[in-house]
Amino acid sequence: MRNWLFLLAVLVLLGAVYERFQSDGDTGLPVEHAEKGNAIGTPTSDNAENSPPVNELTFQVEPDQVRKGNLLLVNEEIAVPPNKADAKAVNLFKHKELVDGFGLLDNSIRLSPELAKAFTTMVKHAAVDGVKNFLISSGYRSDQEQQALYEQLGPEIAAVPGHSEHSLGLALDIGSTTGQMKDAPEGIWLKQNAWKYGFIVRYPEDKTEITGVIHEPWHIRYVGLPHSAIMQENHWAFEEYLVHLKERKSMTAIVEGKTYIVYYFPVASNTTLRVPVVGNYELSGNNTDGVIVTVFDIVN
Ligand SMILES: [Zn+2]
Fold first, then answer.
1. Residue 259 Cα to chain centre, angstroms
2. Where is composition skewed (Polar residues) in this entry (predicted)?
């Protein structure tokens, strides 16, 4: 009798293992992510505590990671942290090889080569749609340059020095040679398509209460994929995205057939992160209290 009971227990256990294997077998993702991730930006809550992870990424992060990366939030309350944007920015007028498919408002515009290339990729796709009159009117700005602008334009138009995304090195002001961005084909195209290239139109008309900034159809910010896609799909301002991600702890997005899982972890001191999935990953701080791990090329 005791042997029968033992066999029954083994069978039940095997059944449980088989079920677990089945649900993970197709994608290597926890089943909840795989099932709900069939539309871009569909948020899912992280259920990792309930079922032990089959695989995981484990690595150490230091507290200064909170202030580094493409997802740093900067607004009237949160300042630009010390960063290397000044060293990375080059004068585009002197680097003509980086100017391809768009114009420059003047000869002082500076940008990191990486951001210039991301912008070039985007405008080349816009040109295929017949939209090709883009102009960069502002790129990287040092605190001194922001101070001068602030004194010239005032607080309604210009951010307080130390609180401009331009000083992060991740923002661009875009104009059109054909008119105001609000109505120009370039502005309309950016609003509809910038997210595909990792950019967001950072200060939309209906989010001024959240962003604290007037409608700026010309100001785009680089955050990278899939973050721009998640914000577009859910109609979230950057502030809202970071709040939702923090609440839900993880979100899955499928963009152009590529699966990403985004995790938020609070980080206050040296921390070992355990991410319940295996793949390539990128790290960015949120500039307040934690880091965001973006996993892609997920190993099945
Ligand atoms: Zn701007």
1. 15
2. 41-53
Q: Which of 32, 165, 186, 216 is catalytic?
A: 216
Considering the chain, what percentage of its residues have pLDDT values greater than 70?
82
Residue with tokens 């960069």: 136
**CATH architecture of structural domain 81-222:** 2-Layer Sandwich (3.30)
Intervals of CATH 3.30.200.180 along the chain: 28-71+236-300
* Dist. CA 218 → ligand 1 center (Å): 7
Question: What's the gap in Å between 242 CA and the centre of ligand 1?
Answer: 20
pLDDT per residue as tens digits for the range 60-110? 999 999 999 999 999 999 999 999 899 999 999 999 999 999 999 999 999
The token pair that represents 173 in the structure block:
């002001």
Render pLDDT for 107-125 as a digit per residue (tens, 0 to 9).
999 999 999 999 999 999 9
39 CA distance to ligand 1 centroid (A)? Answer: 31
- Ligand 1 centroid to Cα of residue 81, in Å, is 18
Question: 129: Cβ–Cβ under 8 A, 6 or more apart, which residues?
Answer: 189, 193
Q: 216 catalytic, yes or no?
A: yes
Query: Please, how many CA atoms are within 13 Å of residue 232, restricted to the half-sphere of its CB?
Result: 23
